[in-house]
Design brief:
The complex is a heterotrimer of chains A (60), B (521) and C (421). With 60 residues, chain A is an alpha+beta fold. Chain A is built from 3 helices and 2 strands; from the N terminus they run H-E-H-E-H. Chain A has a two-stranded parallel sheet with strand order 1-2. Chain B is of the alpha/beta class and 521 residues long. Chain B contains 17 helices and 19 strands. The longest helix of chain B is centred in the first third of the chain and has 19 residues, at 78-96. The N and C termini of chain B lie far apart (56 Å). Chain C has 2 domains: 21-233, Enterococcus faecalis V583 domain (Enterococcus faecalis V583 fold), CATH 3.90.1710.10; 243-415, Alpha-Beta Complex (v583 fold), CATH 3.90.1700. Chain C has 14 helices and 15 strands. Chain C has a 4-stranded antiparallel beta sheet. In chain C, 58% of the residues are buried. Classes of the chains: A alpha+beta (60), B alpha/beta (521), C alpha+beta (421). The interface between A and B is large, with 38 and 59 residues. Strand 1 of chain A pairs parallel with strand 4 (118-121) of chain B.
């Protein structure tokens, strides 16, 4: 979906981060979802490594 | 006084909420000092610097929330502080009126929101790139407000975005208006036929506000992030935005705003401008106009000028550089005389305190030519603010720069920083104070009120020396903004502040006042 | 595409969705529970030794010893338990589950549940009711007396009742109950009512005296949680066959022994991943506080493991007040459980979620990625044996259990040479 396509659509936003941005959009009637964001795997490096290893399972 | 640390494991709250919360808890009786933050190295250092660290700090990880406090146990307790903490959070949750479910990740949010087309990312920089990548992979456009994203990541992500025909606005992109909806820091402006691509947040805000004032409107306002036109990034988003506006049937004229790009970058832009069927106004702030004009585009001397020219060209009218004022010249001269008459002979210095980076830049470009101005964004290295320990000289500060926002919200969100600088940097030798007052989404709910409170304080202080001070301001906003342009102007004028219709005019007036002071009686 | 794991998980979910837990009768633990013996006591949660047991478990063991006639006094019982003459094993290792302390001894009567889809069985003792009970670690004479009454009166009546009635489909009963405000862990009122309604005529048809029939009906009726001791083995029977699916990241057991919380993952077989059980930050009855609480205990979170219990909190708004929240909170909790599970239950549909199926099939990868932990509704026991329940609240398994499991899972894949370099 290109930039010019975006211009023709209704803006639907996913907000990761500052709640105030979500609230401002909501007050303007924009469809917006606030993500209850946490760093992936709690930001723990060893867990991120394990998860990415799992993604490298050989195809049979 | 005793030190206490309270820890919430594996919690997460956004930085602005926590900073504002710290401020609220500071007000509690019996609290000498308190800091609330996530257990990042930055915050732990900050806490240590403030003398708030305890042995529990060893156990903190970046996923833990800590409340570190120095309290008088006769007057309060950690329990009371925790209760206040929870109350504050509940209150803001109520004010949010946000009962809606908040999915825990981008992936689940996209599942929950069919037709999602834009992701707004303002998480800490070290995590932002991964989220942007996921968003682009899912085919969504991105506005990346976070900074502290590496150049390598920015390039890689923008290349991916361009490949997929998506927007990746940022990093450090604070302003955009897509399909008429303001994103992050932006003003409520009418919809219209002028499209803007801007690498500068408040610069973009000023241009959109001026266009609105002149009766025209905005089709799309695309941000690119401050680094887009650097050599390493190659203007990828500027070009992407530019081309999409050329192709946009709702856009009849295009304005480009940025600090002067590297010549090779500028070349790319000019090449597109040359073949553009729509008129192009280019404000490379302080940049080379001959090259711009050679490309068939229209050059500008200020953000206001860019707006004025855009409107005139759209209407098929004649245009010229706007170097003067809205008010007649003689009225301006009178204002200058009256202003200087209020000052004593030892009042000679400028204190320009800006919350908007580009507005500060515009001020520096104009004033720095005629006067020696020390700054944290100096025109040359010897004028860096560090070289003025005595404080005796002209000062212009961009209070939104990193050095002033360490552990504090941006001054556009919270006026506290500027309030403190008014106190510390204005004294009996200050002649003129210059400020920007930025309204709109994302900004504090009463920036004019905050400035007025500070000016009142200053006037009180200076009246003890039988002195007064000249205060000049411009308001970047519209009558549609929550903070209401007209109300803000009235508030400022009631306090005797000289309000000009644009940053450029406010700067020019400041220059006139400073020249007049130089000339003497 | 991580096909290997996705395929395994699909298989595990198919097994879970197909489960047909059915009450087929009652028996005596020593006769029907595999591996049961006079010198073996089963308990809730992962493996534990007498030395490490908390108050409720110790009290339950002591009560069990006196009930079995192996000790005459609590002091003797404690000595016996510490002597090494008694063996301990998790209920889970013997196809059984037990609420709170979950102590099972040979003489105890148990419900027998069969998963008609795969033939495996699960067992659970009959719920003693409220007050001073063995599952809370009480060991006074009234506890023993009550257990003896259950063995001599309750059990025979119910055994004949089911023989007369025939098997009872628990899947359907649970499916109905969750549409009547139950989540069949902390809220069992509707399910217990459905059960009594179902078996009442058969009770009347048994060969026992009117007095016995009356006292049995009154007992069942006096205890809203009668059905808990059926929903638990129903969940156990449904999940157990999934525990054999290789390379699956689906959790098929969650359980606590009052000292540690343990989980088991399908692709990791019978291995337990444990961490210290948490003290629940919940709503305490007047006069009690967190200082009095025992750490989390019981096999009852086998219901959450299946997607009912706390996972279906949205469908049981009545208990949220009890655990200190609002109905909106309940919906939020259930909604967030979809983030860490794999499919929606085909059997258990939740009206307040627009009849979405309960969130089923906890995936350890999703738990770690989203940092969303399974939610468990639980009662809180006093840390001293026999005082009883002191509150209720919401608790989560420790994240570290899932992290250890993920690490073990990846190591397994590496050992099997299934990871690309």
């Amino acid at each position: 979906m290109s930039v010019n396509d975006l211009f023709k659509q209704e803006l639907k936003v996913v907000n990761l981060g500052l709640k105030s941005f979500h609230n401002d959009l909501k007050s303007q009637g924009v469809t917006v979802v606030q993500v209850n964001w946490k760093p992936k795997a709690g930001g723990k490096k060893n867990m991120l490594d394990l998860l990415s290893k799992i993604n490298k399972v050989k195809k049979s | 006084m005793t030190l206490h640390t309270s820890i919430k494991r594996n919690a997460y709250y956004d930085s602005v909420t926590l900073m504002l919360l710290s401020r609220e808890l500071q007000k509690l009786e019996g609290v000498e000092d308190v800091l609330v933050g996530m257990g990042t190295d930055l915050n732990l250092d900050l806490a240590r610097d403030l003398g708030l660290a305890t042995s529990e700090f060893e156990t903190l990880t970046p996923n833990d929330l800590f409340i570190a406090a120095k309290i008088d146990e006769a007057l309060t307790s950690m329990k009371a502080i925790e209760a206040a903490f929870n109350e504050y959070l509940n209150k803001s949750a109520e004010l949010d009126g946000n009962d809606d479910y908040q999915p825990p990740s981008l992936r689940s949010a996209i599942q929950d929101l069919p037709g999602a087309n834009m992701v707004l990312v303002s998480v800490p920089g070290q995590y932002a790139a991964a989220e942007v990548e996921d968003a682009l992979d899912a085919g969504l456009h991105v506005m990346l407000f976070s900074d502290n994203v590496s150049v390598e990541d920015e390039l890689r992500l923008k290349q991916k975005a361009v490949e997929k025909g998506l927007l990746m606005m940022g990093p450090d992109c604070g302003t955009a208006i897509i399909n008429g909806k303001p994103l992050c820091f932006a003003n409520a402006v009418r919809r219209g036929r002028i499209g803007v691509v801007g690498a500068s947040g408040t610069g973009t805000q000023e241009v959109t506000v001026q266009i609105h004032k002149l009766g025209e409107g905005l089709s799309q306002v695309i941000g690119t992030g401050g680094r887009d036109l650097k050599e390493q990034i190659g203007g990828l988003m500027m070009i992407q935005g530019f081309e999409s506006l050329i192709a946009d049937p709702e856009t009849d004229l295009i304005v480009l705003i940025s600090k002067p790009p590297a010549p090779s970058m500028a070349e790319k832009i000019y090449r597109i401008a040359k073949t553009s069927p729509k008129p192009v106004v280019i404000d490379f702030i302080g940049g080379d106009r001959t090259a711009i004009e050679a490309a068939g585009a229209i050059a500008c001397i200020s953000l206001e000028d860019a707006a004025q020219k855009a409107v005139k060209v759209l209407r098929g009218q004649e245009y010229a550089d706007f170097t003067g004022f809205s008010l007649p010249e003689d009225e301006i001269d009178q204002i200058v005389e009256d202003a200087v008459a209020r000052l004593k002979s030892d009042q000679t210095e400028l204190r320009a305190l800006f919350t908007g980076g580009t507005l500060a830049d515009e001020a520096m470009k104009l004033l720095g030519v005629h006067h020696n101005i020390y700054s944290n964004i100096p025109l040359s290295p010897e004028m860096a603010i560090e070289n003025l320990p005595s404080g005796r000289g002209h000062i212009c500060l961009d209070l939104g720069e990193d050095q002033f926002t360490r552990g504090r919200p941006h001054p556009m969100i919270d006026p506290q920083t500027r309030t403190e600088f008014f106190r510390s940097h204005v004294d009996g030798q200050t002649a003129v104070i210059l400020v920007d007052v930025v309204l709109g989404f994302g900004s504090y709910n009463d920036p004019a009120g905050a400035v007025v409170a500070s000016v009142r304080e200053i006037r009180q202080r200076l009246s003890r020396q039988s002195k007064d001070v000249v205060v000049i301001a411009s308001v970047c906003g519209t009558e549609l903004d929550n903070q209401d342009l007209n109300k803000s102007i009235a508030t400022l004028q009631a306090e005797g502040i000289l309000v000009m219709p644009s940053n450029a005019q406010a700067v020019r007036l400041t220059d006139k006042v400073m020249q007049r002071i130089k000339k003497g009686v | 595409m991580i096909e290997l794991i996705e395929t395994a998980n699909k298989e595990a979910l198919e097994i879970i969705q197909n489960g047909q837990p059915t009450l087929i009768g009652l028996g005596v633990a020593g006769d029907v529970i595999p591996g049961m013996a006079k010198d073996l006591f089963l308990h809730a949660g992962p493996p534990i030794t007498w030395e490490k047991m908390s108050g409720p478990l110790r009290g339950g063991v002591m009560a069990g010893l006196m009930y079995e006639g192996l000790a005459a006094t609590p002091e003797e019982a404690a000595e016996y338990a510490a002597s090494g003459k008694l063996r301990f094993d998790p209920c889970h290792h013997h196809d059984a589950v037990g609420p709170m302390a979950g102590i099972v001894t040979s003489r105890m009567p148990v419900w027998i549940i069969e998963n008609k889809a795969y033939g495996n069985r699960a067992y659970c003792t009959l719920n003693e009711g409220l007050g001073k009970v063995l599952r809370m670690g009480a060991y006074g004479p009234e506890v023993i007396k009550h257990l003896q009454w259950m063995e001599k009166v309750l059990y025979p009546v119910l055994k004949e009742t089911i023989e007369i009635h025939g098997p009872i489909d628990l899947k359907i009963m649970i499916a109905q109950a969750v549409q009547m405000g139950d989540e069949v862990h902390n809220r069992n009122k509707a399910a217990t009512s459905l059960l009594i309604r179902e078996i009442a005529p058969s009770i009347l048809k048994t060969s026992f005296s009117n007095e016995e029939k009356i006292v049995v009906l009154e007992f069942l009726n006096s205890n809203d949680h009668t059905f808990l001791n059926l929903s638990m083995p129903a969940a156990k029977a449904t999940l157990e066959p999934a525990g054999k699916v290789k390379h699956s990241t689906i959790v098929y057991t969650m359980a606590r022994n009052g000292t540690e919380f343990g989980i088991r993952v399908a692709g990791l077989g019978a291995r337990w991943f444990t961490a210290p059980a948490e003290i629940i930050d919940g709503l305490y009855f007047p006069g009690f506080s967190m200082q009095d609480a025992n750490p989390d205990v019981g096999d009852s979170c086998i219901t959450e493991t299946l997607g009912i219990g706390g996972f279906s909190m949205a469908t049981a708004p009545a208990i949220v007040q009890f655990v200190g929240g609002t109905p909106k909170d309940a919906v939020r909790y259930t909604t967030s459980m979809y983030e860490i599970t794999t499919e929606e239950s085909r059997a258990y549909k939740l009206p307040p979620m627009n009849f979405r199926g309960a969130p089923t099939g906890i995936d350890i990868r999703k738990v770690i990625e989203t940092q969303v932990l399974p939610v468990i509704n639980t009662g809180i026991a006093h840390k001293e044996a026999g005082v009883g329940q002191v509150g209720a609240g919401i608790v989560h398994p420790p994240m570290v259990c899932f992290e250890q499991a993920l690490e073990a899972f990846v190591n397994l894949l590496e050992d099997e040479g299934l990871l690309e370099e």
